[in-house]
Amino acid sequence: MSNPGILFDESLLNIIDFQDKDIVPIVDECDRCTKVGFLPEVEASYLGLLIYVMDLTSLNSTDNRKTIEALVDKALNFTKETLKPDIESMASNHSCEIYNYFTTSTLTPQTVCVSSVRVADAIQRINSQNDHIDIASVAGGFPMGQVPLSCRITEVEYAISQGAAEIDIVIDRGLANIGDFKRLYHDLRSIKSVCVNGDVTLKTILSVTELDSYHTVYKVAMTAMMAGSDFIKTSTGKEAENATLSHGVIMCQAIKKYHDITGYQVGIKPAGGIKFNEQALSWLVLVKNQLGTDWLKASLFRIGASSLLEDVVKRLSAVLKKLQTNY
């Protein structure tokens, strides 16, 4: 269910006090789980989930019709073609749950994420393949967010008109760092109204490493959710520093508190610099430990990445081969 948002309530911005001594053990446990490793069956299912919740992304200044066509082809075909021999090799044991899982899974990322001007290219390529994958579009003055609200709304409307099913917008970090959360709320609320009219998922990028404190991260996350964001997202991928699991802890705490108060579930999307399966698995463990298994689905958990898919598929292939020897 989409998060409809609530009226701005400043009292919700000052509920939790964060200290490093509380955050560090949570992060350490996530990293420990990833380093120790998982049973092959568990790792295979987690890696499969990472593929399914991925927003396969290309947001380069050099993007063009051909690069977007290649991105769509990769999303639709790369995993299926690469893993086909491994899955077929498991066919002799139809009682194997992992075999059943991977033969019924789409083995495609959840979306292809592109710039607003490239949405039409992606849609055309998908239609030519007689296949389907949703298109997410960054919009609203990405990646800075410092353009007039009217221009931000116009770009969001344009992306939706071109066929975007999801919109990733970025906040104005200037407003956040001076504490003008009420204006930030109203800006995001205006964009939410456009998405509601188009039945479009709204993901709000916090750019956490450009905010001045953990407290500001929490306040921005809560403001974005009150404004109706369906997901809160860590980064644009263009920041000088990438988000860390520590930022993720703060975002998860905000999501839990918002859910406790309103009953609405809001998703989380880490993005930026996530290139290796171990990094993605650490985020998965964080979400599982902090928010619960209910959040381990594409409607509440995404990972934005441009080069993660290859590493996840490579590792998954190795794990499936290991499973074959166990049966």
UniProtKB/TrEMBL annotation:
SUPFAM superfamilies: Aldolase. It holds the Pfam family DeoC. GO terms for molecular function: deoxyribose-phosphate aldolase activity. Pathway: Carbohydrate degradation; 2-deoxy-D-ribose 1-phosphate degradation; D-glyceraldehyde 3-phosphate and acetaldehyde from 2-deoxy-alpha-D-ribose 1-phosphate: step 2/2. Signal peptide: none annotated. It catalyses: 2-deoxy-D-ribose 5-phosphate = D-glyceraldehyde 3-phosphate + acetaldehyde. InterPro entries: Aldolase_TIM (IPR013785), DeoC (IPR011343), DeoC/FbaB/LacD_aldolase (IPR002915). GO terms for cellular component: cytoplasm. Its EC number is 4.1.2.4. GO terms for biological process: carbohydrate catabolic process; deoxyribonucleotide catabolic process. It comes from the Eukaryota. Keywords: Lyase, Schiff base. It is an enzyme of class 4 (lyase). The active site is at residues 233, 269. Belongs to the DeoC/FbaB aldolase family. DeoC type 2 subfamily. This is deoxyribose-phosphate aldolase. It comes from Aphis gossypii.
